[in-house]
Amino acid sequence: MTIETILPIPDIFSAKRILCIQPHYDDNDIAAAGILTQLARNGAELFYLTATDDLMGVVDTSLSNKEAADILKSDQFAAGKIVGVKEQFWCGYPDAGEYNYFDLRRDFLKHIRMLKPDFVFAPDAWLTYEGHRDHIQTGLAAAEAVMFAGLTKIASSNTAVDAAYEGHALQGIALYFTREPNVIMDITSTWEDKIDAVKCYEAQFKPAEMDQLIMALDMKSQQVAQGQSFAHGEPLKVLHTSALHVGI
Ligand SMILES: [Zn+2]
């Protein structure tokens, strides 16, 4: 018997409901739209939960916050249509701002207990040289919320959700923006869809920046696919929920 028999890498293609938790509006799609599109086409229901209001990255600084928020959401809906996102949720914490980690974790717990996903996607909080606190906090709070979903003594931000929650099988977490992947997903069949989805995020990138992003994604997707039998890949660290603590 090996440790892998006790804690096998969960199969994301068996997931029926997937909650994708991201710091900003575009992170899920930049990191994982290729595999998420495949999962949606495979019959999984995709839910996106965005931690921050993302207002700091909006290129047109003449827009009011309300106008900028409306454009960000319409970009996100357009991308979500391509990927096959069923529903979008937002926490609305200030982008790159001051907010409480435990409030964020309570909101993530609420959504996990409310939506009962069998898989969660989130950024890898342990990405070396990640300098953006929104990414670190979102990744860590998502990992903790996955671990603590069944422990209703750890309150979410909604007591009614906690009271109604009877537990559910949460198979695992897929960490994206990771430097230590344990799977490289073949996204060749949905590569064009991914690029179309990323291109929807017009409010946050000047045209030249968008071209550069697409080029970088193309190079990276080919780099991670080297030695594999496919052209474009997305790296993920897929972990059983019990593998998120003390490294056993
Ligand atoms: Zn981000």
Ordered list of secondary-structure elements with their pairings:
Blueprint: H1 3-6, E1 17-22, H2 27-41, E2 45-52, H3 65-83, E3 85-93, H4 101-115, E4 119-123, H5 133-148, H6 159-164, E5 172-176, E6 183-186, H7 191-199, H8 207-224, E7 233-240
Parallel strand pairs: 1-2, 1-4, 2-3, 4-5
Antiparallel strand pairs: 5-7, 6-7
Helix pairs in contact: 2-7, 3-7, 4-5
Bound molecules: zinc ion (ZN).
Tally the helices: what do you get?
A: 8
Structure ligands: zinc ion
Q: Count all strands and give the number.
A: 7
Strand share of the residues? 15-25%
Radius of gyration: 18 Å
Structural class: alpha/beta
Beginning-to-end CA distance, first to last residue: 15 Å
Q: What is the residue-mean pLDDT, rounded to a whole number?
A: 96
- Biggest sheet descriptor: 7 strands, mixed
- Provide the succession of SSEs: HEHEHEHEHHEEHHE
| Unreliable residue runs | none
* Shape descriptor: globular
**Strand arrangement, major sheet:** 3-2-1-4-5-7-6
